[in-house]
Each structure stands twice: as structure tokens, then as C-alpha cells.
Amino acid sequence: MIREGRTEGWLKRSVETLPAWAEFHGVKFNGIRIGPMPGFEHYGSTVIATRRLVAGQEDPLIVVPKELILSRQNIQECSKSDQHLKEVLDALGEFGHTTRGAVLIFMIMQATISCPDIKDVGVLNPLNEYIKFLPDELLPTFYSDEELELLTGTTLRPAVRAKMNSLLREFELVRTATESIDWCSKYWWNEDNGLFTFEDWMRVDAMYRSRALEFPGVGDCMMPVIDFANHASGDDTGALYEADSDGNGLLLLRRDIPEAGEVTITYGDEKGACESIFSYGFLEHNTSSAKTMFLDLGIPDDDPLRPAKLAVNTAAPGFRLFDKDDGVDWESDFVWLVAINEEDGLDFKLKQTVDGGREISAQWKEKELDDTSKLRGYLQGDPLWEVYQLRAVVLLQDRVEAQLHTLHDFDFPPRRATVRERPWQLAKRLRDLESQMLQKAKEALEEQKSALLDSSVVQRYLGLIEEDEEPVDFT
Q: Residue 293 forms beta bridges with which residues?
């Protein structure tokens, strides 16, 4: 909690005291320790082998009792004995009963409990101390304006902007929902000395975003101690995480690790460069491709059906580029809605709802279009499918070229003293990776466009060839 330039409630604990906390609360270690890699202390702590570890011959490297898992279910259980936590979760309604909402509020509560001037709020639990071992993460939401400017033309820039807007909405939701609770009004929102700041909300978001894992049988959660393991993809992944039949968290060895070697897990091998920086604040050293990119896509202002299309759309408004073989491919549900119009068979109607209101419904040639993802299947069965494909490809090619221009028009500057090394390096690498992928996508889309233009269906539609003559009826 931030007040008058001081940090309260976020007092950090040295990772050297983590083994004592772990032993006291029943966390078991087998052949590993938590700490910085020798020579790489500035990268923070990780999981390190204390002896040679042999795959297939080791018991779990870490066992975390299920009671320590920071999950929605456990937080709900904690709220049964912590009236203050329950008050806040209930006040937040649906958001307070999501995993993300529950975990973030729980961590804010732990910071509140740890404030030295607050004696009458919350119930202490083992995770109150554990959260103090977690480092602050340098994610893009903590970049300065000057550092964010380096992301111009990348897909990370709009992602950070959208995230900041989302965090502001969540923070305002929490403030509005809890300001009428007496103790929240006194300690969190008091105009003169309230402790809860937007930076606190950014901090717990970064902790959750960079450490949440999807555990089999548990779902999304933060898993104490195991969440110190760093990421490595493919064959470099050293261990797997899962839950046992009792719900305890396990770290299981996957391959041999030498003594003093790092034991890594995977945060998701399919994550692209943008998401790796956005959620974890790093790129693997051997990253050679952006892997996947999402570009937004708009409906032209001169489309007379634009308001209706936006009203009925259920798909993400954009398209995904991804590596495929040696090239780049794409996928999108939204582009098909952009590409077709009334003369093709798209129709909109107003229908009355059960409560007496009205809403817009969409149809494709009398087929109900209540989900945008259905549209591609409808179009595939239409005689003009190749025409619709051509329209989609042209739309995507224009958008890819616009993104390339934005990237190349920005003059990436040398690093200045006011810009930190890591954001500068990551921005530079991301720009290179996304530029390479966009160039490949441009070439792939050009090939697709050329192939479609050779189609007899397209050529006939464009009037480049005559319709087949009707056969003579000699009867």
C-alpha cells in the first residue's frame, strides 16, 4: 500500500528465509532449493537442483499442501473465517467470485493486514507471509511513457493500453463497491490518508498475471514455491506441474538436471512473443519468431450495415497470424462479417425480447446467425465462397501492410539514460520479430490473392469471363 511516498503492507522478505516458512507450513523439497543462479543474481530467484536429478528415479521435487494453493476455492474457504474478506468479496458480486477477482482482492487484503497501523482487519494466514517473498515484476504496465513509445507499431502497444483501461475499470469497481463498508472507507478510501492506490492494484495484477498457472484438478491458481520456477519451452522444460489425488501441488522431474542446474517449467509453449512480454516481462533467449500475432480489424465507416454488424458480433474484432510450416497463416471469425453485405444474403431484423425490449438479430440467407463463428461454415457452402475468401484476403492484406508501415515509419532511438535496459531490449526484439512475421504474412496473403483471382468463380463474378451459354433445347 502506497502513502506519502512510503510503501506499507508490501514489506519484502528475503528468499533466504523461504525454506523456514516452507518447512513450518508443510511444503516438502526434494533435491532442490529456491534462490538466484550463481552469476545471474539480477534475474531473481528460481528453482535450482542441489544434486544431480535423474528422470524416472525421483519423488516429487516439491509438494505443496492443498491448503496453501491460492485458488478461488481456497479463498472462498478463507472467507468463512474472515468476515472482512467476505464483506469485500460479496460486495464485488460476480467479479469477487471469479478466480482473478478473488485472488487479487485476497492479496490486497494481505497487504492491508500487514500495514503496521491497522490492527483490527482481517485474519492472518500462511499466505500473508508468502506473498512478501514475491518480487515486483517489471511488466509493460509499469513502463514509463518514454518506454511505451518504443512499442509503437507493435501489437503490444494496444494490448498495454487496453490492459490499463481494464485495470482502471476494475479499480473503480472495487472502490465503488466497497467505499460504503466502514473499515474500507476508513483504511482504503479516506481522502486524507487512504492506503489503497491504483498502483497497488497494478502490483497485484502483475503478481497474478506473471505467476498464475492452470493446474489439473485445481484450475487457475497461484502455487506457492512452484511459481518460482522459470519458463523453458520444448525439450528444455525440466519439470512438469500437476496436482495429486488429494489436491496437493506437485513439481515432477521431466528430464535429467545436473547439480546446480536450473529446474524449469513451461508457461505455455504456444505463447507468442507479445504475450510473453505482456504477461511475464521476458523473451526466451532463443526466440526466433513472433510465433503468433493478433491484429485488430475495423468495419469501414462507409459500410451501411456497420452499426448492425457491431451489434450482433460475438467474435474478437480482428485476426490472428501464426507460424505454419515455413510460412504464416491466419484465422478469424470476424473478417467474414466485415466481408459480406446485404446483396450477398446478410440480413438484420428487430425482434422483441421476453422483457418487452428489442434487439437486433442477424440472418444469412434465412439461416439464424446468433454466433459469428457460424458464418464461415455458412459461406463455405455458398457458390460464391471463393469470392468471399478473396474479399477477406484483401482486407487482411491491407491491414497487414498498414501495420508494417506503422512499424517502419517509427525511428527506433538509441537507448537513453531515462529508459531502462530491459524495456529497450525487449521492444527492439519484439519489433524485429513482428516485422518479420508481418512481411511473411504479406507475401502469403499475396499468394492467396493471386490463386483466388485465377478462380473461374471469381473471374466470372468480376465479369472477366462470360457466363456459360445456355444449352439449346431442341424439343
A: 321
Pairwise CA distance, residues 332 & 396, whole Å? 10
Asked if residue 122 lies in contact with residue 84, where contact means CB atoms within 8 angstroms, the answer is yes
Conformational region of residue 216, where left means phi above 0, alpha means psi within -120 to 50, and beta covers everything else: beta
Would you state the torsion angle of the CA atoms of residues 436, 441, 442, 443, taken in this order, to the nearest 10 degrees? 90
3-state secondary structure of 323: strand
Rounded-to-integer distance, Cα 211 and Cα 103, Å: 12
For 303, the grid coordinates are: 459500410
Same-domain status, 225 and 292: no
Which backbone phi and psi does 221 adopt, to 5 degrees? -165, 170
Confirm whether 233 is domain-assigned: yes
What is the rounded CA–CA span in Å between residue 95 and residue 103? 11
Over 60: is that where the pLDDT of 146 sits?
Answer: yes
Query: Does a structural domain hold residue 188?
Result: yes
Q: Assess whether pLDDT exceeds 70 at residue 23.
A: yes
pTM of the prediction? 0.89
- List, for residues 101-133, the tens digit of each pLDDT value: 999 999 999 999 988 888 888 888 888 889 888
What's the domain count of the chain? 2
H/E stretch holding 111 reads: helix 99-114
Q: What kind and span of H or E run contains 402?
A: helix 385-409
**CATH code for the domain in which residue 179 is found:** 3.90.1410.10
Task: State phi, psi for 268 to the nearest 5 degrees.
Answer: 130, 105
CB neighbour list of residue 93: distance below 8 Å, 6 or more residues apart: 177
**Structural domain that includes position 52:** 2-253
Q: End of a domain among 228, 253, 278?
A: 253
| Residues 212 and 338 grouped into a single domain | no
Give 426-469 pLDDT, tens digit per residue.
999 999 999 999 999 999 999 999 999 999 999 999 887 766 54
Whether 265 is in a domain gets the answer: no
Within a 10 A sphere around the Cβ of 136, how many other Cβ atoms?
A: 11
* pLDDT, average across residues 80-92: 95
